[in-house]
Amino acid sequence: MATVLLVEDDDQVRVLAESYLEEQGHEVLSAGTASALHDRTQSDRQARFVKNSAFLPKPYTVEQLLATLSVHFRISPQARRQRVSV
Question: Is the dihedral of CA 74, 29, 33, 78 positive or negative?
Fold first, then answer.
């Protein structure tokens, strides 16, 4: 799949987006701010210009996230796993 760089200042949105992307089989590098991400990667600004990369500005919907993955990376969403209650 893809490695997704996720910078989201809203903790709940970040956790939700990260969980969804991981469920879809992607590796996610996430942080609450660009400066926090800078500590984990070379540079957030450089990441925007990496070949075969895409930038999805806020606010975005799940549908827009899926469309970005589909259009830029030709990645179709996987069927959601059914949760089993115990």
Answer: positive
**Is 7 within 8 Å of 31 (Cβ atoms)?**
yes
- Rounded mean pLDDT of the chain? 77
Q: pLDDT tens digit string along 35-73?
A: 776 666 554 755 555 667 778 888 888 888 888 888 888
Place of tokens 């984990």: 40
Question: Which among 67, 18, 35, 32 is positioned nearest to 3, based on CA atoms?
Answer: 18
Q: How many domains does the chain have?
A: 1
d(CA 66, CA 71): 9
Residue 52: give its domain's CATH number: 3.40.50.2300
